[in-house]
Amino acid sequence: MENKFGIPTSIGPPTYISTVGEGTLEAPHALNVNLEGHICDENTTTENLGSGETFTGNWQDTLNYGVITVGIKSDTDSATDGLKVQWSSDGVNVCEQDVFTILSNQGKVFSFGPARRYVRVLYVNGTSAQTSFNIETRLSKVYVKPSSHRINDPIVAEDDAELMKSVITGQKPDDTFDNVQITQGGNFKISLEELENDVSEDSNTTLRTTTIVEDEYGNVTRILGDNIFKGALITIPVEHHEIHCGDSYEFGHIADLGNGGVLDVLIIVPNEGVTGEPGLQQDVKQYHFKGRVVSEFEANVQFYEDTEVSDNGTGINVYNRNRNASDYTDFLGVYHTPTVTSAGTLLETNRIGSARSSGGQATRADEWILKDNTIYLLRITNNVTTDNYIDVHIDYYVHPGI
Questions:
Q1: What is the mean pLDDT of residues 215-235?
Q2: What is the mean pLDDT of residues 335-342?
Q3: Partners of 391 in the beta sheet?
Q4: Four-CA torsion 305, 311, 313, 316, nearest 10 degrees
Q5: How far apart are CA 182 and CA 166, in angstroms?
Q6: What is the mean pLDDT of residues 382-393?
Q7: Of 148-157, 163-172, 265-274, which has the strongest mean pLDDT?
Q8: How far apart are CA 235 and CA 247, in angstroms?
C-alpha cells in the first residue's frame, strides 16, 4: 500500500544480524542488540590442588570486555594472598596484581574493570590438599553489579571494595543544609563517645558524652567522676580524693627532747623504677609527701635527702587513711632513732616556736614528691634548755595507686 506521494505505508519485517545468527525483528520493530558474555576457560578450573600447589591460568585479551568476574570456592585455605588476579599490557609480563587470601568453604566473588589489556588468574593452595575446588572466570561486555554483602555480614580484610568519595551533608534546625567540616588533622570537629548504649534518656536533649582534658605533655584523658557519689565530678583536692581511692597513708611519732636533744625520723622510698620525666610515666608509682611538726618550745626542723645509716632504728607503723582499703599496702619504710652515718643533702630548714607548725595544717604547699629508691631524714633539734615536747605527723599519697 502506498500513500498519495507513492511512498509505501507498510514494509515487511527487517532482518538483523547478531552474534548468534540472523533473524527477523518482531513488532514493534525495535533494534535488538546482543552483547554476549564469555566464560574464560583458560582461567577456569575444578582440578584439585595438593599442598602448596599452584594453578596458573593463561592470558586472556579483555579488549572487547568491560567487566571480569572471578568466582572461587575451596574446601581448604589458600596460601597467604594465594589468589592473584594479574594484569599485563603485552600478555607476557605482569604489570600489577590484585591479591586475596581465600578461606576454606567460604565462596567469594570478585569483580574488576579491565586494568590492562590482558588478565589471568593464579592460585596458590595452602598447606592442606584440596578435595573440592572451583574457579570460574567470566568476561562481560557490559556493567554487572559488583560483589555485595548483606548488611549483617561481617566485613573482612579480604573483601574487595570500590573506592568512593563522598561529601557528608547535615540538616540544621532551620531546615537548611551544610556540608560537614573536618579539622586540619582530618578528624570530625566534634567527636562523641557514648557512655552507654543509648545516646540520651531525655529525647536527645542531653547527650551522654565523656569530657576530656589535656595535660601539659599533650596526653588526653577523661575528667574523673567519683564512683562513690554516682559519677559526680571530682572537685575536692587531689590529695583528698586519694583518701577515697585508698592511696593515702599517714604515720606519727611523739618524743620529749631534753636540752639539745635530737629526734631523727628515717623515710625509705622503695625502688619503683622512675626514670626520665615523671609526668610522662603515668604508670609508675610516686610518693607525694608532706610533714608537719609541732613543738612545745623552740626547735629546729631539717629535711635531708640521700641519707646514709648503719642501722634503720625502730619501725613506726604506717596506716592507710581509708580503713576499708585493706589490700592497699604502699607503705614507706619509716623508723625513728636510726644510726646516721651521713645526713645527706639538706633540702629544707625551718625554725619553729611555741605551739607553731612547720607547715600549714590545711594546705599542701610544702609537699615534696620523693625521689625514687632514696633515703630521707627528718631531723628535729631542741633549741631550748628545758624538755621540749615534739609531735611529728606525716601523711603521703601514692599516684598512681595500686
A1: 64
A2: 96
A3: 254, 294
A4: 60
A5: 13
A6: 91
A7: 265-274
A8: 18
Q: Is residue 272 part of a domain?
A: yes
Q: Which three cell numbers stand for residue 31?
A: 533494534
Residue 73 maps to which CATH number?
2.60.120.380
Residue with grid cell 545516646, as numbered in its chain: 199
Cα 222 from Cα 227, distance rounded (Å): 14
- Contact call for residues 223 and 212 (beta carbons, < 8 A): yes
Q: For strand 60-61 and strand 118-125, is the pairing parallel, antiparallel, or unpaired?
A: antiparallel
> d(Cα 137, Cα 42) in Å, to the nearest integer?
9
Per mean pLDDT, which range of 166-170, 205-209, 269-273, 279-283 is the poorest?
205-209
Is residue 193 in some structural domain?
no
Residue 342: partners with Cβ closer than 8 Å, 6 or more residues away: 307, 308
Nearest by Cα to 263 from 294, 236, 237, 234:
294
Q: What is the pLDDT of residue 142?
A: 83
pLDDT-based confidence at residue 52 (cuts at 50, 70, 90): very high
Final residue of a structural domain among 140, 169, 184: 140
Q: What is the pTM of this model?
A: 0.47
Grid cell in block for residue 323: 580503713
Q: Which amino acid does the sequence have at 342?
A: S
Please tell me the total count of domains within the chain.
Answer: 2
What domain range is 378 assigned to?
241-399
Residues 394, 246 share a domain: yes
Select from 122, 140, 158 the last residue of a domain: 140
